[in-house]
Task: inverse folding
């Protein structure tokens, strides 16, 4: 029974991940910092416009994710990102805070999840497996390879 996924595009993706792993790990560390994670989530609950700052972090993650492959990113992921970025604060947003700002957090959380999975499996995998751990399977979905 075959244990390695031999598809060239999957092997290229893993090679690209390994080559850029230091960049991904550096960005993940930044995304786990007080000012890029702890404080913006607090700002959501505090109903502060500063939660809008998460959009820049999300966009930075997505840009790095896109740099790994010529494969288009998953449509659902791109929709989540689109709905949670390019927002500008208006005072009227306070009247519908959850509806306006939750997509910002959702886009950040999904982006951060993929960043985490790429770091985890970029370190863990020597070859792309046929039996897929959930996180690696998610990465393959992100690049439409599953």
Result:
């Amino acid at each position: 029974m075959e244990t390695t996924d031999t598809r060239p595009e999957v092997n290229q993706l893993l090679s690209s991940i390994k080559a850029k792993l230091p960049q991904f790990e550096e960005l993940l560390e930044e995304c786990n910092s007080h000012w890029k994670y702890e404080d913006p989530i607090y700002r959501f609950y505090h109903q502060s416009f500063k939660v809008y700052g998460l959009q820049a972090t999300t966009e930075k993650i997505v840009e790095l994710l896109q740099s790994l492959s010529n494969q288009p990113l998953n449509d659902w992921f791109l929709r989540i990102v689109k709905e949670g970025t390019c927002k500008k604060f208006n005072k009227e947003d306070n009247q519908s805070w959850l509806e306006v700002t939750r997509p910002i957090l959702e886009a950040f959380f999904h982006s951060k999840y993929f960043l985490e999975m790429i770091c985890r499996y970029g370190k863990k995998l020597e070859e792309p497996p046929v039996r897929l751990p959930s996180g690696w399977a998610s990465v393959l979905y992100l690049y439409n390879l599953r």
